[in-house]
Design a protein that fits this description.
alpha+beta; 8 strands; 17% strand
Length: 224
């Protein structure tokens, strides 16, 4: 099958739509796309109509926005490029996990499949990126690990961090400074719903209590 070639705008849009539903069943809105891509809602509406005409999304104004099979294939190709690039920048160029997202955003549109295959080989064909997000394989297959948000993890339940959302670099830096990374064993030890705090223990250390605001805790996904 000949791959459908599209521009950077189309790649950005289908990728944003796919990522919005990767870890959540909620449908993305026009305003959310506009905020993510830093454009106006009217610009988004016009581009969504174009993508619908090109067969990449199913879309009716004020209705649900969903990818077609063609749109999903393109999104997964871009996601694969992005996450392999992030992994390469962290593992081979020693960049911080809080600074690679924007770099990968730029490079993902320019890198060739030949170079990407070499990067994948050099990294040992990783299955997840530095933030724990799964990397689609070359055939577009992707498996999301069973996980829940940290603050939804039962109190007293031993779990392990499997993913930390990379949307906010400040959150990544804060968690890293406090020893919360992909693979860290955690246990929710208490909640203060009235003030929006979750207290967790890291590893087996009974003295390692860490209180996280809901905003920070909602960036952390743990094993079920």
């Amino acid at each position: 099958m000949v791959e459908q070639r599209v521009g950077a705008m189309a790649e950005d849009y289908v990728t944003v739509i796919w990522k919005a539903q990767e870890w959540s069943p909620a449908a993305i809105t026009t305003n959310e796309i506009a905020a993510t891509l830093a454009v106006t809602p009217s610009t988004v509406s016009g581009n969504l109509k174009r993508l619908a005409r090109d067969g990449l999304i199913d879309y009716e104004p004020y209705g649900r926005i969903a990818l077609t099979a063609a749109g999903r294939r393109i999104a997964l190709r871009v996601v694969r490029r992005h996450r392999l690039l992030e992994t390469y920048l962290v593992e081979k160029l020693a960049m911080g996990w809080d600074e690679v997202h924007e770099e990968a955003d730029v490079l993902e549109h320019a890198i060739s499949e030949r170079v990407l295959a070499r990067i994948d080989e050099a990294l040992g064909h990783p299955s997840v990126d530095p933030h724990g997000d799964p990397i689609p394989d070359a055939e577009g297959r992707v498996t999301r690990p069973p996980a829940v948000l940290l603050r939804h993890s039962p109190t007293g339940h031993d779990a392990q961090v499997v993913r930390i959302a990379d949307k906010e670099p400040d959150v990544l830096r804060y968690l890293d400074e406090h020893g919360v990374r992909v693979g860290t064993p955690v246990q929710v030890t208490g909640r203060r719903e009235s003030v929006g705090l979750v207290t967790v223990r890291l590893g087996a250390d009974e003295q390692s209590a860490l209180s996280l605001t809901d905003a920070v805790a909602d960036a952390v996904w743990v094993s079920r």
